[in-house]
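SEQUENCE-TO-STRUCTURE ENTRY
===========================

Subject: a protein chain together with a token-level encoding of how that chain folds.

Sequence line: the amino acid chain in single-letter code, read from start to end.

Question of interest: how does this chain fold, as expressed in backbone structure tokens?
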Amino acid sequence: MRHYVLQVKATEIPPSHYLKCTQYPHYNEVEHPDEKIQRFLLWAHKTGLLAVWGPRRFVLSTDGVSKFLTPRFSDYQRAVQALSAVTVDEFIAKDGMLQDLQEGLQHTIAAPQPWYIVLEGRKEPMPFERFLRVALPGQEYFIGGAVFTFCD
């Protein structure tokens, strides 16, 4: 899957059409980065996550994050229950099953999707759903640049 990584800060940031993620060398330049950024903003707006949005900036709505993540909580609970039901014998001998259960839990917390965020002060991109958990509703955020990768 192709992932777009957006550089996001709580202060105004000049456009950086070739964001470099130093920890990960497998990023590529995005053709037409402004289009990709606008596509992200339009998607987030249509899902009800944004109170305000404009070119290279957005403000999360106060209730949008809850509305977006709450429906996934039951999936999270099911994944935790499945992990809790693992027997000692399965824990010892069923590596593939454990990997599947672990991956299932990870996907309920932050499923693979096209949008990742590199937040100011962090070196590693995070899935957009994780960003929603650490971002402040009402805070204006600015987007500086975008890159893409095929790696998860």
Remarks:
- Strands lie at 3-9, 28-29, 50-54, 57-60, 115-119, 126-127, 140-149.
- The chain has a mean pLDDT of 85.
- The radius of gyration is 17 Å.
- The first helix runs from residue 33 to 46.
